[in-house]
Design goal:
elongated; 152 residues; alpha+beta; 5 helices; Tetrahydropterin Synthase, Chain A; single chain; four-stranded antiparallel beta sheet; 49% helix
Length: 152
C-alpha cells in the first residue's frame, strides 16, 4: 500500500516539475524573441535565380546548351514587396539576352563579356521592378554542354 502511494506521489511530482519546466522555457523563448533587434528596412539580400538551360542553335541546328546560374543582390524590403519574385524575372531576362545574343561563341565562352551581360540583365530587371530594388546581378555558373556530351 505504501509502495503504491509513494509511486503515485513521485509521478505527480515528475508531472508537475516537467510542466513547470515547459512553461519556464516557453517564457524564456518569448522574451528572447521580443528582445531581438528589428531587421533594418534597407538590408541587402542575396537570392539565387533558378538555373537556366539555354539552347544554342547555330546554322539551324541544335549545337548544345548553355547552363547558367545567376544570383542577385537587392534591398530585402523592395524584393519582398514585388508581385513576382525578382529572381524569376531575372531568369526570364537572362534567357532572352542569351538566346538572342549572336556574339556568343559557344566554342570559346571565356571570351564572352560577362560584365556586359550582367549589366544588361540588371538594367532590364530594373525596368521591370523599379529603381533601387536590385543593386547587382552576379553569375554563379556559366557553362556550355554540347549535344554530343549529353548523349555520353
Amino acid at each position: 500500500m505504501w509502495k503504491g502511494l509513494i509511486i503515485g506521489l513521485w509521478g505527480c511530482l515528475v508531472a508537475a516539475g516537467s510542466s513547470y519546466a515547459v512553461v519556464f522555457m516557453q517564457n524564456k523563448k518569448a522574451t528572447a524573441v521580443a528582445e531581438a533587434p528589428a531587421v533594418p528596412a534597407d538590408k541587402l539580400e542575396r537570392r539565387k535565380a533558378p538555373p537556366l538551360t539555354v539552347p544554342v542553335v547555330l546554322e539551324g541546328r541544335l549545337q548544345g546548351y548553355l547552363i547558367v546560374q545567376l544570383a542577385l543582390m537587392g534591398m530585402a524590403q523592395g524584393m519582398k514587396s514585388q508581385a513576382v519574385p525578382p529572381e524569376v524575372l531575372l531568369s526570364s531576362e537572362a534567357f532572352n539576352i542569351l538566346f538572342s545574343d549572336d556574339r556568343i561563341d559557344f566554342r570559346k565562352l571565356e571570351k564572352y563579356d560577362l560584365k556586359a551581360f550582367t549589366e544588361e540583365a540588371r538594367s532590364r530587371l530594373v525596368k521591370r521592378v523599379g529603381e533601387g530594388v536590385v543593386t547587382e546581378v552576379m553569375v554563379d555558373d556559366f557553362n556550355y554542354v554540347s549535344k554530343d556530351d549529353l548523349r555520353k
